[in-house]
Write a structure and sequence with these properties.
The protein is of the alpha/beta class and about 400 residues long. About 45% of the residues lie in helices and about 20% in strands. Strand 7 and strand 8 form a beta hairpin.
Length: about 400
Amino acid sequence: MTKIAMTTPLVEMDGDEMTRVIWQMIKDELITPYVDLKTEYYDLGLEHREATGDQVTIDSAEATKRLGVAVKCATITPNAARVEEYNLSQMWKSPNGTIRALLDGTVFRAPIVVKGIEPYVRTWQKPITIARHAYGDIYKNTELRIPGPGKVELVYTPADGGDELRATVHDFDGAGIAQGIHNLDASIESFARASFEYALATGQDLWFASKDTISKTYDHRFKDIFQEIFDADYRERFDAAGIEYFYTLIDDAVARVIRSEGGFIWACKNYDGDVMSDMLSTAFGSLAMMTSVLVSPKGYYEYEAAHGTVQRHYYKHLAGEKTSTNSVATIFAWTGALRKRGELDGLDDLVAFADRLEKATVDTIEAGEMTGDLAAITTLTDVKRLDTLEFIKAIASRM
């Protein structure tokens, strides 16, 4: 058959461990047989990030600015154990954090809902979408190990030579730890506008939550910017659309989410969104059953799987053992990127292909053919538990 044509390449960001293995399987079995795939390839595997001093991560983000659409495999954010395991020269920062800081924007994550995988929270009847701010906070922090007694301060030195501002963080009487975090009004404004626009586009209520009662400057700034932009530019549009913007404290939001029926967008600061998106995806079925896309106000899109590199399965794979690793989120990262590329380039066949691949994936699960994580929680009967490659081939058979 004639393969579906592409005109502009995608930025392809390869990753680590079991998700890297799955990445190649998806390309070989589900995409390249049907699509004349064009990508600009960047290897974000930990070894190559080490070899390039992490320049490859920066290069991949710059390529995304140039080409507009990227698809990213899961990658390792090294801790002390990973530094020793991979003999790293330093503890490289999260590649996701680096890319998001360069692209700005908001990460939207929503569960992939299929029949037979019921939410653990019995009140949830509709998907809940997380809108995660993708800049700053602890993902762009500076940290110190405090060796002994002394004072840690925040110091602001104006560029125009004006008076410094100082605030004491803590007077240490012994060893401890300290960190500094920051954010930008411009980035928070982009986050707010992206969230409001997404709510209007999908016809869903928007919730936003922070901890402004405790963080009376930092978190309160988020609350104020959201409210100012809503009042100035979105209140009338929300009223006309019949949807609501709602602010509450993050702990109250968690309680309300658990009691809700779903069907809304929950905007969260960077760390809150990181944690709550994993909670939601697991409660809806599996960490591997969630879409994730970074939407930049400048028109860049980066699609990814919202889970980790599945280290335990990778070690089994290296030992020659069978694994049953769920590839759905990674498949949907590819379909999201291909669909967006098709939409931007006016390629209807590419958009339709992405739709068919997603349908084939859902149909496979709903027919009772699934990986072990789903087989353990499904309400379907006569389920066939498939290994990693068998599941991908079962999807391919439906294509």
